[in-house]
Every structure is written in C-alpha cells, then in structure tokens.
Design a protein that fits this description.
It is built from 16 helices and no strands. By secondary structure, it is mainly α. The N and C termini lie far apart (58 Å).
Length: 327
Amino acid sequence: MKNLRRLLPGLLLCAAGAVLAVLVNRAVPTMSALLVAILLGVAVTNLVPVPPRFQPGVACSAKRLLRIGIVLLGLQLVLGDIARLGAGMGLVIVAVVLFGILGSFALGRALGMARTQCLLISSGFSICGAAAVAGVNSVVDADEDEVATAIALVVLYGTLMIPIVPLLAHLFGLGTLPSGLWAGASIHEVAQVVAAGAALGPAALKVAVVVKLARVLMLAPVVVVMGAWLRRSRPAQPGANRPPIVPLFVAGFVAMVLLASLHVVPAGWLPVIKIVQTVLLAAAMFALGLGVKVSSLVKVGPKPFVLGLLTTVWVAGIALAGVMLVS
C-alpha cells in the first residue's frame, strides 16, 4: 500500500495525459494518440516543472505500463496477414530492420556517438519508433537523456515522413500497392504510417499497416539478439545487472501474436483490448515525453540529429529498393 501511494501521483498524471491524448485522437483521427501523448509530455515538462513526488509513478509508466502495452500490441499481429505479403516482401522487411540497424549503428559510431545512443536510434528508426526505443532500452540500459533524444528524433523525422513519402511516391510514379508497401517499410511509428497511408488511399493504407506490423514483429528477435550480444560484451561484475536473454515482455509479446494467429481470443474482446493497449502505451509515451527537455536536446549537439536524418534516408532507401524489386 505504501508503494502504491508513492506511485499514485505519477500514475494519475500519466493516466490524465493518456486520456487527453485519446480524446484528441477521437476528435481528430489523423492525430495519433501515442504521438499526441508524447507531445503533451514534452509540452508539460518544458512549461511546468514536474515536482519530484511524481517521478516514481512516471518511471513506472515509462517502463511497466509500456511493457504491458507492447505485450497487448501482439494481439494486433496475425501471422497469416504477414504471410500473405509474400516471401519477397518478407525478405525486404528483414533487410530494412537488419541493414537499417547495422548501417545506422555504423554511421553513429563513425560520428563518434556512444554505443547505447546508436543502438536506440537505429532500433527506433528501423523497427517501430518510440516503442522500439523503450523496448531495446530494457536490455541496453542507456542514460535517460539518450532515451529522450532517440524518442524526440523518432517524433521529428517520422512526422516529416508523413507528407514526404506520399509526395515522393507520386514523383517516382509508384502505384498504389508499391506506395503502401514503401510507406509501411520506411516510416518509423505505426501511427505515422497510418497517417501517410491514409494520404495514399484506402488500399495503400491497408497494406502499409500490415507491413509496418510485420516490422513491429521484428522487435522480439532484435531485443533477444541485442540482449545476448550485450551479455557477452559486458564482463560479469558482482552485483551488476546483466541484460536478460529473453525479457519477459518479449516472451509475452510473442505469446500474444500466437494467440491472435490461432484466433483463440474472442473477436468481441479485441476492440476492448485495443483500447486498453492504446491507453497503456499513451500513458507510457506521455511519461517518456516528460523526459524530453529542450535544454537537454540543445546540449547533445548536432550529431544525433545528423544520425537521425542519415538513418531516415538510409532506411527509406533500403525499403524503396526492396519494394521496387519485389513489386
């Protein structure tokens, strides 16, 4: 009970931010609840200093609620839908994630950036945005400023991609299907993909979302591989925490994907579960947004912003080349 009282102020603050973000999304469907929640968190922390008594609950929202939300996100993924994309597009998705992370990491290290910062940015841009940043951070254990910077970059560059991808798709003469495939394979956040896909048309939107969700599915193996790599690269020290081989939330995410694919969960439950998942992730995004301080972003210098731009172009280029090969 004492621990709950300690967490309650921050949890209520994040819940309020989540509810407000969902209400904005209901009023303006093109505004994603998760992106609104991040922006609200950024606005609050930079305009009104958050008292220390809120911090325990905010930290709980940014970690525990996020992991529960990611687990429930697995219920949106049906392996049959992804399989219908075809083997060629499946390879493109793997290439986007694999080479996106490796290329971005190499660029970041060449710029002289910290390994943890490079891993967060490369994962967020290559997989599924802020959720990937937070998920990977569960094994990377980066500094708070590095996490905040990676999330801010995902919001910045992913939002810029919303009008740019449809415009370039038109200039390149891509048809409806290839345009949707490219949007899903290149844009950072699920919500940003939805916004860009809607601009491309209903048919493009549907395939864009399936491709993006297939990239989300890659979060599980990426976290497992990174965890194993970091366990080997960090010498064991008495009392030090080592990254888990398979984080519990990753196992839960995979289990939910299997349940969804087997159609075990009653169809009537799915809309309710999706609302719960959205609120949980929105609360987590609001909490993460509270960690994005403009003054801190100014201090990090231009390197993360350069890496964000280069990674956006790199991932989009891999995705476009792959889509043109398989379409």
